[in-house]
Amino acid sequence: MTDTDTWRLSASETVARTTSGDLTAEAAVDAALTRMDAVNPNLNAVVVSCADDARARALDLDKARASGAPTGPLHGVPVTIKINVDQTGYASSNGVPALKDLIAPDDAPLVRHLQDAGAVVIGRTNTPEFSFRADTDNPLHGRTHNPWGKHVSPGGSSGGAGSSIMAGIGALAHGNDIGGSLRFPAAANGAVTVKPGLGRVPAWNPSQTAERGMLAQSMSVQGLICRTADDLHLAMPTMIRPDARDPFHVPLPWRGDALDGPIKVGFTKETYEFDLHPEVSRALDMARDALTDAGYQVVEVEPPHLRDCGMDGYRTLMGEVLSLMGPDIEKFGSPTIRAIFDEYFEQFAPYKDTDILRMMAKRTFYARAWSEFLQDYPLVLCPFLPQPFFAPDRDTQGAAGVREVLGSALWSYSMNFMGLPAACVPTHVAELPQGPQPMSVQIVARRWREDLAVDASAAIEARLGRMCDLLWQRMG
């Protein structure tokens, strides 16, 4: 196979070839690195190259296979890791210049598990400062661009992951999500992802000097951004393997029990006080029709307490951020990120004192209401954002910018507050006045049933196609 063919392979296709002997791990990694050299200078998605380590590891994998050693489920798959997660010998800078020399003494659980499964880390992807924007730019590594064009943000905070995976740099891209940081980049770039639920993927950075706040622990999750839903089914069983360093990890298998009869999908276009764009409405209709054709029973619903849950969740998180992260943001953050946080605190007035404790308790009320709701509707098809994805730096443009970027993202951060899994899958490319961009929908699932959300994403993809194929035609 030529490099042109090889870098286009999905993770599933790569594993099929590396385990059969049709493709070496060295060839798979070399193709990904060649692609990175070709497109990354215009994207700035991968900001730290791991090329030398990757080539050495690929050779070791090939030697082990030649000697008769068993291959892992991700044998030879090129992957990227976000720069806010520990990888031995590399800085976990989180986009902050003051942390540029914070070298990881050991691998985070997900990095260890991916490599134990045979994956090869080829680079580390960009994030905004403190990984707390839905756009990706920082004073340490600069701006990441969307491969669809500079008219649209690559999303954040896993913007480097979303940009790189869709441009063909590697077959799997690690990211994380505390309020939408897997789904924003997936939606912006036309990728597919699933935000795992609470406790699903073990998390811990050995470079940490203190534990994160309790709400951050409850809302933040680790995951993958992919070009195809099948790759989530391939790789997520590796991601959810247990690790003793996360004492609250939930050791459940990836696949849950089969459900009786056609799966009922709650369907809603509700965007509350925000206008629903015709292209978002069209995306929801296309996804609904795809699921119906695939045998799902789609029913219009009114989900419980969504707006209140979203606002209470974000105001509670902002209260914790103000108390625990505020001093570091003020001391180490750039003027840009400080101004953005000032606007966050203005629009999402942080809960304080006993109010924050009451809202952390009320989180159970919202989660219970949704747990009961999801007994009747195991999946919910809903908007992710009410409007097409925003332009770069929109969140630096005062109250209106922050309202468009995060204020309208009720369907995003409410799922983090309740700890529910939520997938994001593209439907079509909208030809908008500002330029072309992919449109996506969100699929919420019952607790610990990420597999159901990925199944539904695969059904939509089977009907509507992969966005990467359209993107690569445009990229040439």
TrEMBL record:
Keyword tags: Hydrolase
| Region described as Disordered: spans on this chain | 132-160
Tell me its EC number(s), please. Answer: 3.5.1.13
Which GO-annotated molecular functions does the record name? aryl-acylamidase activity
State a single Pfam family of this protein: Amidase
Can you give the residue ranges of the Amidase domain?
28-451
Instruction: Spell out the family assignment given in the record's similarity comment.
Output: Belongs to the amidase family.
Q: What is this protein called?
A: Acylamidase
Q: Which organism is it from?
A: Falsiruegeria litorea R37
